[in-house]
Amino acid sequence: MKGLRAWMVRLSGLWTAARREHDMSDEIESHLQMHIDDNLRAGMPPAEARRIAILKLGGIDPTKEAWRDRGGLPLLENLARDTRYAIRQLRKSPAFTATAVLVLALGICASVAIFAFVDAALIRPLPYRDPARLVGLFEQIPLCPLCPLSYPDYVDWKRLNKVFTSVEAFEGTGISLRTDSGAEVAQAAIVTSGFFRTLGIAPILGRDFRAGEDTPAAPRTVLLSYAAWQKRYAGSAAVLGQSVTLNGEANTIIGVLPRGFYFAATGPAEFWTALHVTPHSCYEQRGCHSLHGLARLRDGVSVRAADSNMKLIAGELERQYSSNRGQGAAVISLVELDVGRLRPILIVLLCGAGLLLLIACVNVTSLLLVRAESRKREMAVRSALGGSRARLAAQFVTEAAVLVTASGALGLIAARGLIRILVSLIGAPQLAAMPYLNGLDLNPRVVLFAAAVAVVTLALFSLAPVSRSFFPDIRAGLMEGGRGAAGTVWRRFGANLVVLELATAVVLLVGAGLLGESFYRVLHVDMGMQPEHLATIRVAEPDAVHNDNKKIVALAHDVLRQTAALPGVASVALTSTLPVAGGNTMWIRVLGHPYHGEHNEVGYREVSPAYFTTLRAKLLRGRYFTDADDATKPPVIIIDRAFAEKYFPGEDPIGKQMIYAGASMDHPMTVVGIVDNIKEGPLDQSTWPTMYVVFDQDPDDRFTLVVRAARDEQALLPALAASIHRFDAGMATFDPATMAERINNTPAAYLRRGSAWLVGGFAFFALLLGAAGLYGVIAYSVGRRTREIGVRMALGARPSSVYLLILREAVLLIAAGLASGLVCAAGAARLLHGLLFGVTASDPAVLAAVAVVLGIAALLASFIPARRAASVNPVDALRAE
Amino acid sequence: MSKADVWQGTLALMVLKTLDTLGPLHGYGIARRIEQTSGNLLSLNYGTLYPALLKLEQEGSIASEWGVSENNRKAKFYKLTRRGRQQLASETRDWQQATSILARFLAPSGDAI
User: Fold this and answer.
1) Structure ipTM
2) Count of the separate structural domains present in chain A
3) Which of A151, A123, A829, A780 is nearest to A486 (CA)?
């Protein structure tokens, strides 16, 4: 306590130093005066009296010094003095300071910004109660490892499992909403009644669904998201008990969800309704898979144990129901589901940013070393004048600390900007699937990370000059330093550092090259169609047509006719699901083939006759659909090449018949055509076998219009929506986008695009810094060898041989950097494994390109000083020394 | 016998005791008093007194204020605080205990073990 109090007083003494100094002088003066008075009284002569008094005191200045040491905190005062000195020194060499601070800030900015994403996705827990105990439940078939489950299966899983405290089901969906200004499609989610209790989320207003509120007979109730409450009801508390018409049914609003609530698997749903099993709906059929499962693990049960329990139950159901044949179960932790896909990319990016930071540190270290060399003389002088080693070292560390602090602050501010830019680049649809990235900003953890980075950097910088033969013996320093020559340290370390820099740049360049190539390959994968100049928009017909196929078809034909008449439209078609979007599957049975109830799962699309010509797909055999293929005719289908190869090997499929598994044999579908594979699923996966049926023979009140534009498809989008609304105000349109946008926004494309750009950016700066480092080393070496070069030239050496002399040194360094970089890159490329597409980690073209780019940049960097060396005037060079 | 230097740590105790006995006093007075009390056996470098005073003041054992000396000189007077009095009491006890133990050790060994 006593010690602490004294320390506080001393600390506060730092600010009152001037007044206390004055006080102390007065006190010592008064002490001396009293002593002198006594001495005079004792009969001493005045001069002697004063001398004795001072002698007895032990000298005035030593007394003051001892008092000062006790008065303040010498350590802190020295620190303050060193800091002021360091700032003064740094301001004296603005070029050095600016370079060092900028380079370091760049490295810190990159790593902090990427860390903010890592923090949001991988470190910050999901905003639910005990999120690590939450899991997602899926059905599993060979074609689809994580597939939606059917309602009857959900009920059985819930009843039979021994590993969960609760099991819930949900699905995200579009819902047509009646508003004052007409019909609108809003995002909604359908959940079982315990969904929010399982997550541990309570409404901020009103109440949660009660148990049993999801039974068929229960009154229809709905919870609002916070955003919907604000947007549609202006945040009014009177919203409770109000009615809202969703899909033509009146629902009572019973509550509002918290502001920060999100659930990645449903997207940003505005309306959360309870799941009601209605007659003839998908929920009644064991073979209709539309739901996702959410469950909370019992205490002590691992995800793996839950997984095997569910697989066991799925096995029982398989034996019990033919529709479940071949169907397993999968349990995956919710965290893994939400961020698992992002993890490898974030790790790659964090490594990239780390490498950039490393290269920045190396660059600044070499700058500091050069500076230390040039200050050897200053050090020697100060050391000769009695500066202790510790004080001299402290001085250097302080200087590095000032640099790091400035760069850290600058880097943090820049990181904040970079985070905003990166988030804005992600795009709304992707952000909806990664809600944890919303509102991403600096937070205490990120700032702490920045501080940790700064501390490590500072440690690196302090080690370099302090551990080196940095304190030469004083005499050598005074003698050698006088000439400003030097450089053993620099020669040895500078060269090694440059090799490290170049190698790091190579690793980043290879990474960027591989990712860039993968991105290119993904975009240029054969899609079996021409995605340019396609405009698309999703359409939902009015509730009035519900379940009346004739009306649905008539309305769809009207929409097609209206759209085709628009100026700038070359052709128009509709489909249930667009290419590259995945979508529905069906089980089929080929008539005439042996069948034992196996699940022949194929992709499934309902399309209008003009679909293939609008996409410009390639017909391989048979014919396209025509307008004559309507509901009055026997059903016809077109299959793709993958379908033909898988189910009709060595046969001609045209004219063959098939039915949906379990359907009656009375209305078989006849194959009339084969098209080349269209990329219906993700770009980076092989095409599923897919079948196409005629919309008129199997209509749906929701579909997507596909329009081939004569010119600018982007400009067509607003016209499409307007024309449909003009024609029928009850039609809801949503999600207008060009096909190119949709392709660009698929995870396969944007994840690679994003990481390629980021790693490319890192690589660009790494290359720049590496080249600058090399330039520094060569320029320094040329400077040191000016005299030698002068002598050589005086003795008749030609400029070309001087070039050779200098460039040989450079080429050795470049070769060493390239070789070690390529070796490291081979190892680092394993990290990229999951992201690569169409290239191997050791793609020779990429490696060669990197070698060329780095070689040229590095040679350019060393050519400049070499030219200076070659143009040395021998007379000047000799005289200068 | 040569004049002894002041041991580290005991100076504070002497200062506290002096202020306790004489009441508020300036640095010079304290220094003279310590020398006199020791029968001039202690050689005190007056300058060392001031950091010790400062330390005691920082620890809150003494307080200071400017005043006028007996000879009409401006001087800084120190006085004991309540905390200083407690410190004096406890340190005196500790010291006496220490010296009595040491005294027993060094006593003429009439009854050696």
Assistant:
1) 0.87
2) 4
3) A780
